[in-house]
Amino acid sequence: MLSRALTESDLRPLPSRAVDLLVSLDAPPRLAAHLRAVHDVAWQLADWFADRLPLDRAAVLFGAATHDIGKVVHVEELSGPGRRHEAAGRDLLLAHGVEPELARFAASHASWTAPGISAEELVVSLADKIWKAKRVPDLEQLVVARLGGEPWEAFMALDDELDRIAGGADQRLAFQSSYPI
Questions:
Q1: What is the pTM for the complete model shown?
Q2: Predicted pLDDT of residue 148
């Protein structure tokens, strides 16, 4: 079932390093499906930001592909609330040789107001919300502030793109829910 979650659907495939980690950890299929959905949205966002905000695209995509990997340890957080997976995910990635600058996304994806948060971390946080069409005005405002230019124009452009991406939320949610925890 994990193999299907990692390969089926028209969602973009995860980076091979993320796939290898998920397979070696025997990740729950639903987690793999979730990570693919968020990764696909992060890919779309990275494309949109390409001419608007300098980003380390590879870091964004790896961060999105592994942001919830701590749920391998805290499986209960796949179906309920919790934040223990964040630090656990960072520690798990570090223990498997992932560089700290990439492991950070597991710990920071829900902490977008933390001091020193990078543009890449904001994009992963945004992808983790918009994949299911959840709009978070405070997060979006932080992203708009990074875009520069006329704030109102930046907001309108981002709003249009988020609406477009959110339009695919039902398919992504159906894909994720088709896999067991």
A1: 0.97
A2: 85
